[in-house]
Amino acid sequence: MAAVATAWSPLRSSSKEVYCGDLEGAPARLGRAQSAYGALQGGILERRRSWGDAKASPRSKEDTSKPASTEKCRTAPNASFENGINARPPVPSVDERPFDSSAISLSLPPPPDQNKRAGRNSGKHVRMPAAPYDSTARRSSCPVLAIPPTIFHSSRNFAPTDEEDRISEDDEEYDNNRGVVTPADDELLQKAKAAEQQPVVWPERNDEEFERGRALLKTLLCDALSFDADDMAHLVLQIFEECGIPENVGITTSKLQRFIIGVRDRMLDNPYHNWTHIFDVTQTTYCLACKCGLMDRLSSMQRFALITSALCHDLEHPGVNNLFLIRSRSSLVALYNDTSILEKHHSFRAFELMLNSNIDLLSGFSPEEYADFRAMVMSIILATDMARHGEYMAKLNAYTDPAIAEEDRRIGGQRVDLAFGMEIMIKCADTSNVLKPFNVAKKWAVRVTDEFFLQGDLERANGMEVTPTCDRQVQERVALQKGFYDFVIGPYYSKVAALLPELASLLDQIKVNREMWNSYDDKMLMDELGSSYLARLPGIGTDGPLKLSVATWNVAAVNNNPFEYWITHQSGEYAKLMNDVQRFVDNPGGRDFVVSEVLTDEMFAELKHDMSKHGFPGLDELERRWVEDYRDRCAISGFLKDKAIGSKRLVSMPDRITNTINSDGRIIYRPSVISGFEGEMGHIPVWWQKWREYTFRTDVHTLDRLSPGAYKVQAVCKMIEPIRHAKYPAITMEEEAISIPLQVLALAIFDCVLVRMLQIIAPRTWQPLKHSLCDAFNKNKSQQVINILAKSYDDADIIFIQEAAASFVDHAKQGLGSKYMVLRPYVLDGYRNQNSMILARKDKFIEGSRADLTEQVGRLAGGRWTAPGDLCAIAIKGVDGSRYLLASFHGDTNGLATIPVLKALNEAFTKSYPDHIVIFGLDANTHKQNSVNCQGIADFQQKFSEMGFASCWGPSPGVHTWTTRNARTYLQPQLQKAVGISDAARKGEVNLKDWIIFYGNQMQAVDSARDNTGNREFAESMVFPTLKSFRRITPLSLACLSVMRTTTTLSARPLGDVRG
């Protein structure tokens, strides 16, 4: 359910975002992975030397004689220029240091399918201007980042405790979605391919702004800050086209559009490292490479690598530097071996995006081309690590030694390779703010120092050593700029100009800018720039109580069985089918049949043979149990209704693992009555072969939970895990020894029985009815949620979301991005697809002021109580000057994790963020009765009240204030929990689970409401979901919260305040 509070503010923001399909990763292409990775395992060093140092082939010489716009062949990326390369200078080089590339190269999906071709015609959407930026926004929290082997991957890299397993495995809403798949079934594969091909949402072009930008692309007068987000996307595409990428590399414009928007949507709203910075570096890289003549010397593949590297060099930058990650013990540090952490991560994310099945940017590359291109991009991005600046200065000193002949000092000459030239270009572009006119350079100076100071605030608030350059208490913005010019920029560009005389004029602008800084101090700088930014944010400093409209909603993205819950359905066919199923199960009578009639001895022999091929143990014992026990049972009364099978989890456990496997845009379903499978199931022999094909011969490519960053390939049946007697005492030690094959057998019997039962009850109607339910409940789940929010809750200021699929982020940006920021943890969970997120209204909260506290709060809770995706905790600044700590959470089924997480949030507030206003929207999974194994409503109310919290439901919510009202049917694997249709409203699950919680001395609830219709109305007696309007199993909860203090008393602290 969801909770909502109504609030208002006079502020409006013009910021909007753009969306590009459902971007969730790349499919597994295992056949080509072995060959490509074989090339990469030799090490990035050898690969880099092969494309940067090898002598030019005749083909590469031919290419260099042709202009980029007319070149028609795709030159191998190992082409050098002119006479190739001799020995490199005897200077220290990163190439000569030990370098572990496995953290990147071996954690990526396999290379793309060469035979897969791209392209959809581009669509259009409303023009979206760039977001305003508050130069005074400061963070006051510590985002300790989790392991991200993929953005949709759990960060857990340890064996779960028994308690964790009990919580996760008892959760009836557990998501079954697992890894990327390569299904052998052609029908499934074709459906998956069809589903993933979504047209790109490409923005309309403002011709006037586009022409203005295009005229400036090859100049340093191009001010990225003067263009909106759509303009920048079009100009990046123009750069690719001017480099000849579409025609010469064989990448369609549609793919490039998807890729560009994918990068844009993945950039966070940091003050400096954001989409504008990405465009600025990309344009400047192109400008400088053209200006010095490097672009003419590069092959098509090298040009593509250079521009792609610039576009992705800071992909998903968190707004803190490598030193912060090390000091905060981020798990990224361990993943990337302590060096160039962010740069390796940006490279990883870049290839994850390029291999995304909805983008498929590299599908035309051979394995060798892919390996060469990958090595180039990795090396170029690694060059942006400022920790390696000394190495590049040493190389420049050696290359510009007067003893070396001038012709040998040039890029592409005898001694200086093209690889080094590309690395120099991106290093120049990444520090190019100093090359721009001063009125542009000073804007970037404010942004970069803002981000520095935000990091310092995070460090101080969390008891970390404050990085000297990030300490706003002792540093001045202008002094930092002067030092940067004097000690970094001046020496560096002097050497670049010596190596590349065509760039010598850059020194003139650097000298002008440095001289201009002498006439500035911080007050003058902020008077010119800071006040103008604040002028875009009306409402700051106004008096009077602030009201916020808040909603919370568990959107339940993980329910995959279309028949699991009784629904409010207008169709007589649905009511008849479900009634007939209930009567059949309650009183099968003479219609009951023996298990061996549907799972015959011949079918069991096939099952045993399949399991034998996979090395399953105990098959002789399994056969004995089949013969002596299962084969002669009555299918309904002796198997489906056997409570022991339920308590042993012999069906429910393998069902939750194999029902639906979803990752990377690929979704497959077990051929079953209770999955989203849409194939024909009317003839058991045909269906049985599909079931075997899925279970035993469909390979699934998954991220290994115990080895972060590593993939493993296994059949679906190999994903099934043992059931332990210690955890489920109902299962005997003997059964535990064969629990995997026993689960496979039980699941096979269960699926066979359901197919036969529905053939008996409704042979002609059950499959069409199932398809209609799948269309209504299982397809376009995220879009259904977006539609309700856009229609009925567009006035909400904060919307807490729980159990959303990872893809919900992109859907929300497309459908709600004009009004809301989508706040989510840095790492999303695509393994279970149960993610908590927050939608924050742009006219109430300042973009660029967010800080991710998710892992920090999770650690305070002890770690065991939260799985990846359960919690989202964000610190953000309001336009009224107040600071907010917003949190969204989904607890375990029994609610046992709720109090530990609430205590952790309270501890974070008390110790680190006492000047923040805390608002917590959660699915607490509280129940009417309290017990050792279940969190009760009254006990929960008492415990959070003792911490000073209050809730939207008042001081004593009654048990009749429910936010969950649903009942399980007879078509689901835990029959003991089934409720008859006549008792669905009376005996189903009716509990108050959804809450909006806040400190009683900070806010008060002016009003509260529930909504189970999607129209801000509540039908007290209605069981949901409903087929017609409300297709979720939980409603929304709403509250209007009023801040009890005026905005002046909550105004921002001075710059020197320790909490930023």
TrEMBL record:
Q: Might you give the EC number(s) for this enzyme? A: 3.1.4.-
Matching PANTHER family: CYCLIC NUCLEOTIDE PHOSPHODIESTERASE
Organism annotation: Hemiselmis andersenii
**Entry note: cofactor:** Binds 2 divalent metal cations per subunit. Site 1 may preferentially bind zinc ions, while site 2 has a preference for magnesium and/or manganese ions.
Is Lipid biosynthesis found in the keyword set? no
The family classification in the record reads: Belongs to the cyclic nucleotide phosphodiesterase family.
User: Which residues are noted in the entry as Zn(2+) 1-binding?
Assistant: H277, H313, D314, D430
Q: Which Pfam families match?
A: PDEase_I (PF00233)
Q: Where is the PDEase domain?
A: 184-524
Q: Which InterPro entries match?
A: Endo/exonu/phosph_ase_sf, HD/PDEase_dom, PDEase, PDEase_catalytic_dom, PDEase_catalytic_dom_sf, PDEase_CS
Cofactor(s) needed, names only, are:
a divalent metal cation
The name of this protein is: Phosphodiesterase
> Which positions bind AMP?
H273, N274, W275, T276, H277, D314, D430, Q481
**Compositional bias segments (type: Acidic residues):** 161-174
Alphabetical UniProt keywords: Hydrolase, Metal-binding
Which superkingdom does the taxonomy of this entry point to? Eukaryota
Query: Does the record's keyword annotation contain Metal-binding?
Result: yes
